[in-house]
Give the backbone structure.
Amino acid sequence: MPRLTEKACWRGVELLVSSEDISAGTEWAIHEDRHAVIVHLGGAIHQLESEFEGCGAVLDPPMAGEVWLIPAGTRYASRARGTLVRYAELYLDREYLPKYLPDAFGQRSGDESLTPRAGYFDDFLYHAVRRLESLLPQTDDLSQMMSQSLSQSLCLHIFGAHNERAAQLSNQRSSGLTGQEAKLLREYIAAHLGERLTLDALARLVQMSTHNLLRSFRKSFGATPVQYIIAQRLRRARWLLANTNKDITTISLETGFASHSHLTTAFKMHMGLTPSAFRQSRFTSHR
């Protein structure tokens, strides 16, 4: 079976998720001008030999969730044999980190270096990558927004966990939005609720980085942008269901949901019943 790979890119981050049959043995090599992170997602690797910059090591068979971190410019090679395996490769642009960190941590760290690691367990990375993988086929704006948010969280987690100074700076508290910034965002989201919304557009509106927007938005609104937008879309959908005769497909598109089924899934998850049942209950209660 040939190697099958899904790929996605966000600002400063590239993700590849691969399935590969390594029963006949395989060799992997990385020497990039970007930081690389390998996450083992599943499948049995019976034999694994790894080499960092000429220093070899024979490792125990990895379990799902174990991670290899290869800093930019570092030569890495491995030889493996096993069954059908699944793994993710994250590549972080080294120029992105120093530009990104001043907004993320309040000041420039002056050091974006990472420490090489091999075969360590990182539960957050594992589940975050699995979540990103599940979002890859989704094309609606909220899924894209969640993917971008999660890719940034992954970037910060990796850097914060392997750079002591950055980890200290990341603990500094952020401020919320000003009253005017919150008003701008609230009005913009309301005016464009039926359109495709992006973190970049919201961040530009208040002249922030997307990371600062995420932190400040949560502090001011008590929710992430995704949570807030879903709540507002469902609120408008409820009003339209109760006060108009528009069909549910039309309502779903007018409120920013991709389809009838997309609205139904979100509505049932948050309201406990389908849009049709909600409309019927309103009709019955007013008879």
